[in-house]
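Our preliminary data section would be incomplete without showing what the modeling component actually yields. Below, a chain of 263 amino acids is followed by its predicted structure, encoded as tokens that our downstream tools consume directly.
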Amino acid sequence: MDQVPPSQATDRRAAWAIGGAAGVVLAVLTAIVVFGYVPVPEFPRLADGPDASIPGQVAYVVGEQDRSCIMVVPAGGGQATEVACRRDGFEALGWTADGLIVASVFTDFRPVVGGGTILVYDPATGHEVASLVAGPSGTDRLHQVESERDSQGRRLEVPWTDDRRAKALIVTTSGEETTIVDVEGPRDYVFLGAQWSPDGEWIMLVDSRDRLLVLAADATPGPRVLADLHRDDGDRWSGTRPAWFIPGDATHTVEVDDLDPTA
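Predicted structure:
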């Protein structure tokens, strides 16, 4: 059998690789033209390039097959730390002014009727430092930590559209709207929620691909992925809102005593 010289074999492999890549591009373009397929938007990941200008920490919940875990990550990107996990899940998150994480939990995957268990964690160690059974006003207080509005009263909206666009808006008290994100994606791609950072300079978005995104309030820089909100294939975001904390800024924080009905 004739042998192919190594140089020719290398050239053939390169040609096949180029031809294969071209085929993939052509297939995608054909799908877009013929079937109207639009890919899911991709964004840079802060873990790959942390941004030291973004202050504070973000607590969020990731879902797994049989439990939920509270994670904490620097808001500018970096290594996420696991704080605590429970099989019955976490319903709501918040921070205290001195940097402790407050979480209400589910019982048998349902919130306790008329109230619920509140746990307080030290994010640096993962230790549970307090536990209390809060009445309805306590759990409601944790849920009502407003972060859709900033100190100027501006609110965030993520309107539903039917034109393959996912949008996020800033709306002033006078009703003026500013679009800060407008990306094209599949019809089922949407933003599920939006929150201000405590200092009002940054915005968090959760998208329908279970990604936690961060962008500047003036949209420069634009969205970057801070974290994924699930770990295992097939699991979905728990729906628990993330919570942002900046040391020295008490905005959007809670007092544990306000949650305790016996205090």
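The chain has one domain: 57-259. The two ends are 89 Å apart (CA to CA). Preliminary results of this kind motivate Aim 1 of the renewal.
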